[in-house]
């Protein structure tokens, strides 16, 4: 799964890398973040029909139809195998897909009676994007955006650490993932390329 990640970059690099055309918050306030946790606000990239925009969203998706602001169970991760059918994620998967920027994520492996943390990143380092979902909840007050990271079975690199991993998109697939007019019946059939990750030496 994915319960912690980092985003260690500056605002200009983030905006340039994801070809952002509009920002919905003051990006000058963005600071390197080394240990992002569930329920914290994170930047997301979405396309509302007029180009890519950068918004903030709470990590842990709250569907717009939910009566409660806080889900009864964890929604920080959505399983790729069931994301197209699960009521919590189904609408977002069809119409509200997003990119969740990151530079690495953490997983823990049991060893010697305690859990050993591992930092996972791309072989070349730098920015990448998790395949994400977002929604807007506004039953009380001004409302807020929220998001979830899609996870899938671990690749060969990750298998010694964990049996699951976040879906990391190839940059060439960013636009098709964000295009709400492109319907996917499931992650497996989406034809997306998942980038490999590198374990620390």
Strand content: 35-45%
- The tally of domains stands at 1
What is the alpha-carbon Rg in Å? 16 Å
Helical stretch tally: 3
Gross geometry = globular
User: Which second-level CATH architecture applies?
Assistant: Alpha-Beta Complex
Question: Going by CATH, what is the homologous superfamily?
Answer: SOS response associated peptidase-like
Quick overview of this protein structure:
The protein is mainly beta and 201 residues long. The chain is 10% helix and 35% strand.
Could you walk me through the main structural features you see in this protein, from its secondary elements to its overall organization?
This protein has three helices and twelve strands, in the order βαβββββαββββββα. It has one domain: hypothetical protein yedk fold. 30% of the residues are buried. With 201 residues, the chain is mainly β. The strands form two sheets. Strands 2, 4, 5, 6, 7, 10, 11 and 12 form an eight-stranded mixed beta sheet that branches. Strands 3-1-8-9 form a four-stranded antiparallel beta sheet, with no helix packed on it.
